[in-house]
Specification:
Length: about 150
């Protein structure tokens, strides 16, 4: 590796974005095993050897794994951006360039959280109809978030 390449990956942002873009989900053993189970289940279902439950469960695990992996990567980037914005707001408030109305901000946050709770109740009712797939998807999301 040349000096230019090593210096590009040695800074804070280089390490952060290098970490975000590294470790693809398809390199995980559980992802590969679920993929193999999905293909085997789909093949067995097409040959009328069994129901599509194995293929559906494996596909749900794969989808959940990808969601968990993306959530972890997104969370890392969101924390970095949030910290930068918080520091910027602190500096602007300390220098007197901005004045924040905390009552209005609190009212907006409360309104948004109430809206999100209502939407979560609707999603909960939809998910209850797909309970077996949800279990496999939740396990996949956990494994994807932990990347195992």
């Amino acid at each position: 590796m040349s000096a230019v390449q090593s210096s590009a990956h040695s800074g804070f942002f280089g390490k952060t974005f290098g970490t975000i873009l590294s470790n693809p989900p398809w390199a995980a053993k559980s992802f590969l095993a679920a993929g193999a189970a999905t293909v085997a289940g789909f093949g067995a279902w097409l040959n009328d050897m069994m129901s599509p439950a194995l293929a559906r469960g494996g596909a749900s695990f794969l989808g959940g794994f990808l969601i968990g992996w993306a959530l972890r990567k997104t969370l890392m980037l969101a924390l970095l951006i949030t910290a930068a914005l918080a520091a910027l707001i602190f500096v602007l408030k300390a220098t007197g360039w901005i004045h924040l109305e905390w009552n209005l901000i609190q009212a907006d946050v409360t309104h948004t959280l109430d809206w999100a709770r209502g939407k979560a109740q609707g999603i909960k009712q939809i998910v209850a109809g797909y309970l077996s797939s949800v279990g496999a998807g939740a396990a996949g999301a956990l494994f994807g978030f932990l990347r195992k």
